[in-house]
Amino acid sequence: MVLSDMLLFKDNADPSTRLAIAIHDETDRQLGELQCLDKALASETGLVEDLTDWRNAARTSFLTQFEARPDRTATWLRNVVLAAPDRILFIVRSTGGERIGHIGISNVSDEKAEIDNVMRGRRSGERRMMFYSSVALIAWIFETLRVPVTQLCVLSLNTGAIRLYDRLGFEEVERTPLRRIDEPDMTRYTTQADHGSAAGFDYLRMEISAERFRRLYPWVYAAG
């Protein structure tokens, strides 16, 4: 797959032809699906409001922290999510169609892809939904994008997310101290040592190789 294909997925305006990835557990029971956030889905009633609420609830998990607003979320969807050739955001849906959360891919290249924006917005449905959603997406990354490594970055104080990534099989490969910068209506964290003040926590980079993933999740491939 080339990056232009990712833009084609997002340019879709017909829900019946939307890129969707089925979410299964070890028994091959379908739990829901990942739906590519394309032009049609971006205008779905209530979506922007959900994304805004979820972002505010998880504010301290981001490098850039601010009070999200629907207009700002809509601009982000239009100018970043839909426009970037190396990024896709997937909405996590239950089998009943309920929006549960989202998970994305960014910085896609021939060498790697990054998981980002892993967020559960609703607690209804399958308890381990984000685990199985991550498995489904990582399998798609390795088998469709054909990259050798999937990476992610996480704040060291986000222990819940780190536990999830450990369970998935990610391993820490780099740890960088963060610096805090306070601005009007926003707090930013950076790895640049000559900016701001010490944050007191780190930025972790974790990764999993295609070989390790296939070894840990043979049931994904057995189920096809």
UniProtKB/TrEMBL annotation:
<dbReference type="InterPro" id="IPR000182">
    <property type="entry name" value="GNAT_dom"/>
</dbReference>
<protein>
    <submittedName>
        <fullName>GNAT family N-acetyltransferase</fullName>
    </submittedName>
</protein>
<dbReference type="Pfam" id="PF13302">
    <property type="entry name" value="Acetyltransf_3"/>
</dbReference>
<dbReference type="InterPro" id="IPR016181">
    <property type="entry name" value="Acyl_CoA_acyltransferase"/>
</dbReference>
<feature type="domain" description="N-acetyltransferase">
    <location>
        <begin position="49"/>
        <end position="171"/>
    </location>
</feature>
